CPNE8 protein (Cardinalis cardinalis), 518 residues
Amino acid sequence: VCVLYTQAIGNKEWREFGRTEVIDNTLNPDFVRKFIMDYFFEERENLRFDFYDVDSKSPNLSKHDFLGQMFCTLGEIVGSQGSRLEKSIVGIPGKKCGTVIVTAEELGCCRDSVLMQFCANKLDKKDFFGKSDPFLVFHRSNEDGSFTICHKTEVVKNTLNPVWQAFKISVRALCNGDYDRTIKVEVYDWDRDGSHDFIGEFTTSYRELSRGQSQFNVYEVINPKKKGKKKKYVNSGTVTLLSFLIETEVSFLDYIKGGTQINFTVAIDFTASNGNPLQPTSLHYMNPYQLNAYGMALRAVGEIIQDYDSDKMFPALGFGARLPPDGRVSHEFALNGNPQNPYCHGIDGVMEAYYRSLKSVQLYGPTNFAPVINHVARYAASVKDGSQYFVLLIITDGVISDMAQTKESIVNASKLPMSIIIVGVGPAEFDAMEELDGDVVRISSRGRFAERDIVQFVPFRDYIDRSGNHVLSMARLAKDVLAEIPEQFLSYMRVRGIKPSPAPPPYTPPIHVLQTQI
């Protein structure tokens, strides 16, 4: 049997998530039971798989033989080629425990949208002068029998035979992916004062609607009050489904599964405004006992992104420092000291190069962002086919000197497969960074607007809790910083009309030859 545990974000304690079925008498089990979990790109979700040899009916695991375990993150599985991860089982010292293969797939029902159009005939007249002004309200039913509103059509004025515009709604919103769940539709007559008159209602389901335009999809609109009072009451009109089209939305995971790589680049602010790294007040203070703000931001974001980058090699750059031996100022230098090959191995490699640089360069100025943005843009411009996407993390104390050039660089970069994350550390006012973020007003340069919003800014101070318990703040920081990336990624692919590559064929286990012992 395999037992899956997940870890709570705050207290790190492992909780049992579920167990597979027990397969008797085999060393090569192929488990059927699947675990259905929520996936968030922006969260690090730690998983632990424990394996046991089941000897009795007891649910208590201590009564069975432990065969080993495997640790990974959900992102690691999803980010592996074809979303298939193969890893050694560990946990029994000095013993080879075998390997485990875990595959992940996104549930399909959650991603369809439907485009529907309705019309109505002979609805009840509700207005004293003129006819009714009808509109429809759609509700999905919940597990407990209550209803939740999920769509309202527009109002069609002064008619008892309205034709409403087609509308698009996700299958999730319409019926939570359950094709047989009741969908209730109410018909109202719109009134200016908001006291809309109820004309009647009918119920249907996704499965019925999916038959499309047919005699099955003509519904009698019934007003229960009228039905109770009048013996001769037939209905309050009919509503007819005119068309029903299913569209499958492609998701971020479709591209990842098809092999799109996310390339992660870090750029660190080495300007003098950060303070002398030898002083505890400096944002670059090299504290032997805990990470400084730069180190924390780097780790929080990097540990999640690295699961989506197959070679785990990250270019790490610095800007705003004077470099040895001659003291020239650079706004785009390699932290590892090798301009030909600025790549560091893993987030640990980036941290190491960062600390090494702090010892060798002199913090200086000014604070120019454009060179590092252009550096990543050069790479992004060379692969526009959707096979790679670039994420630049800039960590800065926020006092920017080249605002006009930076805006120009961002507007140019918005046409490329890249996103920029800016983490502001320290106590400065980050008004300029908020402007670059472009959530309120789309960023522009010399009259040209950015094609898409590609910048996400967060101030680091919002994530340091007073108790000094950084763990929670690191998880929240990563969440807020990375949450917009999948949408920015999809907006690039959509604008360029790039479809995901087909995933590699699913893995089929080799057929084991049964060996008989003589």
